[in-house]
Amino acid sequence: MTSYLLRGVSVAAAPARDLAIVDGRISDEAPSDAQIIDASGLVALPGLVDLHTHLREPGREDAETVETGSRAAALGGYTAVFAMANTSPVADTAGVVEQVWRLGREAGLVDVQPIGAVTVGLAGKQLAELGAMATSAAGVRIFSDDGHCVADPRLMRRALEYVKAFDGIIAQHAEEPRLTEGAQMHEGEVSTRLGLTGWPAVAEEAIIARDVLLTEHVGSRLHVCHVSTAGSVEVLRQAKARGVRVTAEVTPHHLLLTDELAASYDPVYKVNPPLRTAKDVHALREALVEGVIDIVATDHAPHAVEDKECEWAYARPGMVGLETALPVVLSVLGEQWDLIAERMSRAPARIAGLTGHGTGLAVGDPANITLVDPSARRVVDPSELASRSRNTPYAGTTLPGRIVATFLRGEPTVLDGKAVK
Amino acid sequence: MIKHLRSAADLDAATATLILDTAGEMAALAGREVKKLPTLRGRTVVNLFYEDSTRTRISFEAAAKRLSADVINFSAKGSSVSKGESLKDTALTLQAMGADAVVIRHPASGAPHRLAAWVDGSVVNAGDGTHEHPTQALLDAYTMRSRLGRLDGLRVAIVGDVLHSRVARSNVLLLTTLGAQVTLVGPPTLIPVDIAAALSPSTKVSYDLDSVLPDMDVVMMLRVQTERMQDSYFPSAREYSRRYGLDLARMRKMPEHAIVMHPGPMNRGMEIAPEVADSSRSTIVEQVANGVSARMAVLYLLLGGKA
Questions:
Q1: How confident is the prediction for chain B on average, in pLDDT?
Q2: Residue A405 located in a structural domain
Q3: Contact criterion met (CB below 8 Å) for A132 and A94
Q4: Residue B2 included in any domain
């Protein structure tokens, strides 16, 4: 196994030093034959961890596969991604989660950790075999019907209770379905002007409020997916102050973009939950800095061209995000490297109980490392994405930062900004 | 001149006035024995209709034919569209056939905006989802101006299901641009709270039809679909009619000179009583006739006809 010496690298916010990678672990000394990488001016972060990725395999391999999604993740600086369950067939059995897990191992670019469905077929009627998925080779700990809300309060209560047996966590897509029937975009001035059916903020906030109370009642753990409104932030702030074991994520796009973009009727801006107002964006940024929102998660949602090149109402919601997440967060937070390491690597690994990732990059830790050039600028070109899909909302946008290298247990998956395999 | 008419917001006051003036000239033609102008000879206008709408399609067809354009009617039913062809592929087909203008009616809001990105010709919005119907607003403005002599300072009430109405959105935008004062009236469930901020800050909102009527020059009744009842926008057709329907007693509260409008098709007995629809203050039939003139003016000006 090749050893590496990252010369003159700054680990998160610390002063520049040399960092050695030997036998897949971080070492204080490099052997004489180590490959030297000039890392002066570069920043080393613990490999990024995404708790919310759609890899589309099995079922929509025309939009993404475990392999292409893994490559996009590595290029984005990720060493672990959690694959959502809304595939076809749905990842609601030990068999499907093990298949996804195995495909991830075969691709070997990031650790692919399957998320299991909460209910059979994401139908919201009957619990899936959560225990079987937990004890499978995939070792599932996070369960989610993402794309659908577990709307039935009784079922949600049972799910929260049941996963306590194996320290599981329910990741809720918070959307009261009766309040969002036919919804196309954020309900507000812009939806009124554009004649598109509104997705009211209260549909998210009402479910989060209910779920933190249920979580408190049964003494379990809740993770809230893609928080998008200022009101949700307030609900979470109060719940956390009371000591409820709730964590929350925000997507890069909800930190940067607003509902005004829908005025083009270009469905590349259609996403669920929808882009909100500037006021919401402001509240989400504050909450992320403050820690009311624990992590950034991409909700990377690749879609085939024909599912986006159509009328707004007929388009599928979602945006690709793995390859642009860190640059977007960098543009939003600035060079607060320790905060970025916390929100994009350490905290997500901690929430998921994922060992070996999100470390402090101390001697002996597995060498899961992302090397970033903060001074680089990049104009996003959809045709250059490694993802099989092109639905990025940032086409033509200049973003700061470039992923120079990514190491997965000491093996480079990205070197010089290019995927190794 | 603008290239597309996707929204009434595409029109500034000067352009809108030019269209209304041109519509007046077109209307004068309608009284002649030979109603046809050679202006658009050799040009192709496609009517691309994804929703059944006989009255709007016929109105556009008559307008294009009176200007001597070649008209192709492309209806979604029984065509390649019903076999699953995408809007983009249909657009590329029309483009290859050399359409100079595409008139589109579509159930999805914003479809004309998407279409305009894929064809070189002009795109005219003939009603898109719950968004807009700008030529309806033009014919309505034309009708108001013909009956009342002006638009500036005119007080117009638009009554009914504003939330789902493309007619209301286009009328608010166009009438405000032309100096009228619009009041939207209906139950709070059918009037978006941010409608004024979304369309025009001068727009007023009222939930009480009776209090509004004495101050109006124009009362425009919108079609209210009874299926909204199933969705709890209001409790029953009868209750809606009692609170927001225009009957004779209510019409008498309007000033002597005030007119009653409706974009059609009407639900007689629901939002409008038959005696009101058929009264001399009603402009409903006139609106249909004016629709042809207004659409002639739009096609004529968009396709570069010389005044």
A1: 94
A2: no
A3: yes
A4: no
CATH number of residue B269's parent domain:
3.40.50.1370
**Do B260 and B154 share a domain, yes or no?**
yes
How many Å from the N-terminal Cα to the C-terminal Cα in chain B? Answer: 12
CB contact under 8 A, B88 and A193: no
Domain count of chain B? 2
Residue B92 domain-assigned?
Answer: yes
- For the domain that residue A125 is a member of, what is the CATH number? 3.20.20.140
Q: Concatenate the DSSP letters of all residues of A252-294 into one string.
A: HHHHH--GGGGGG--GGG--SSPP--HHHHHHHHHHHHHTSS-
Decide if B108 and A313 are in contact by the 8 Å CB cutoff: yes
Domain that holds residue A113: 46-357
Residues of chain B with Cβ-Cβ distance to A308 below 8 Å are none
3-state secondary structure at position B144: helix
Backbone angles phi, psi at B80, to 5 degrees: -60, -25
Cis bond upstream, residue A273 (ω within 30): yes
Q: Which of A193, A265, A314 sits opposite B198 (nearest CB)?
A: A193
Q: What is the pLDDT of residue B225?
A: 83
> pTM (2 decimals)?
0.96
Output the pLDDT for position A6. Answer: 96
Count of structural domains, chain A: 1
> Nearest-CA residue of chain A relative to B194?
A189
B307 pLDDT band, cuts 50/70/90, is very low
Is the residue at A415 inside a domain? no
Which domain covers residue B144, as residue numbers?
A: 134-283
In a shared domain, residues B144 and B171: yes
